[in-house]
């Protein structure tokens, strides 16, 4: 699939990738029913299927994906998603919001996976007004590239595109089946982009 993507010009020489997570509905509920339920004491969904992706910002191809359950912290899914992505594509730059602010995430990318630069917004709850003590997080405070970070909106656009085409509700009921469905949705998303490029 990556070879075909390169052949169609979907993957550039210095790929920029954004990491983020989104939630899905565990069952389809009509907008009308959802509004009525919200007014009353209706059943509240306590957990939902969650998908963390590494998305190529230029093409919106999903290079890495990890399924799970929300609500949960985003940062633990960073490592497996980035490992998947860099096994397929040599990523030049990785972007992430404050949910992925951790020195070990920078270190993983820069020292283990060969990513040239990381731009991950500092989480002020971790530092307050103090300067971070660790080198990569300190670099984010010293020279944070806002223009580069603002390319992160592509991952939100990719999620929107995915849900418009494939829907925001899963059909599977149990967690294992939902995980399999999310994997199939990622493959379908990428195949649709390849078909358009062809």
Describe the structure.
With 198 residues, this protein is of the alpha/beta class. It has a single domain (2-197), classed as 2-Layer Sandwich (Nucleotidyltransferase, domain 5). Helices cover 45% and strands 17% of the residues. The chain has helices at residues 2-7, 31-39, 78-88, 103-112, 124-127, 135-142, 146-149, 153-166, 175-197, and strands at residues 16-23, 48-56, 62-70, 93-96, 117-120. The protein has a 5-stranded mixed sheet with strand order 3-2-1-4-5, sandwiched between helices. The two termini are 13 Å apart. The model is unreliable at 30-34 (pLDDT under 50).
Distance between the termini: 13 Å
| Structural shape | globular
Rg on CA atoms, Å: 18 Å
Looking at CATH, the homologous superfamily is Ribonuclease H-like superfamily/Ribonuclease H
Helical/strand content category: alpha/beta
Helix content: 40-55%
Strand order of the largest sheet: 3-2-1-4-5
CATH architecture: 2-Layer Sandwich
Low-confidence stretches: 30-34
Q: How would you spell out the order of helices and strands?
A: HEHEEHEHEHHHHH
The CATH topology comes to Nucleotidyltransferase, domain 5
Broad CATH class: Alpha Beta
The mean pLDDT is 90
Number of helices: 9
Number of separate strands: 5
Number of domains: 1
Strand portion = 15-25%
Let me know the largest β-sheet: 5 strands, mixed
């Amino acid at each position: 699939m990556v070879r075909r993507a390169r052949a169609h010009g979907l993957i550039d020489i210095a790929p920029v990738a954004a990491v983020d997570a989104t939630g899905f509905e565990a069952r389809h509920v009509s907008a009308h029913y959802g509004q009525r339920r919200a007014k009353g004491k209706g059943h509240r969904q306590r957990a939902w299927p969650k998908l963390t992706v590494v998305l190529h910002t230029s093409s919106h191809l999903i290079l890495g994906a990890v399924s799970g359950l929300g609500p949960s912290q985003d940062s633990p899914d960073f490592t497996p998603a980035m490992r998947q992505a860099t096994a397929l594509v040599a990523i030049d730059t990785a972007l992430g919001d404050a949910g992925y602010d951790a020195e070990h995430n920078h270190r993983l990318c820069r020292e283990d996976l060969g990513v040239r630069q990381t731009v991950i917004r500092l989480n002020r709850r971790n530092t307050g007004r103090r300067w971070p003590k660790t080198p990569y997080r300190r670099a984010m405070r010293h020279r944070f590239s806002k223009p580069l970070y603002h390319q992160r909106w592509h991952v939100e656009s990719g999620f929107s595109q995915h849900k418009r085409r494939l829907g925001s509700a899963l059909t599977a009921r149990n967690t294992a089946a939902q995980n399999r469905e999310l994997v199939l949705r990622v493959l379908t998303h990428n195949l649709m982009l390849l078909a358009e490029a062809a």
